[in-house]
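Q: Here's a chain of 77 amino acids. Please give me its 3D structure as tokens.
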Amino acid sequence: MDEDEFKAAYLNLNSRVCPFEKVILSRQCDCSRAARIFIAERQAVGCDANAPQQQCLALLQLLRGNASFALKITSTT
């Protein structure tokens, strides 16, 4: 499976992408709402419901905003 096929399958199978996917896959944290998806020899993580995914997206936005303030970063470009 080439990279384009993987991306197409990923988006088809994982409609609610977890914003903390990389952290969960690296086993730095876990989530009771995480749904693991296996595509070829790779793994992906999605959320099992819309509401928790929206909460995680809001949390991620807050974390980024607070980190920017703490690091005194004024622009995200």
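Q: Can you summarize the key feature?
A: The chain has one domain: 3-70.
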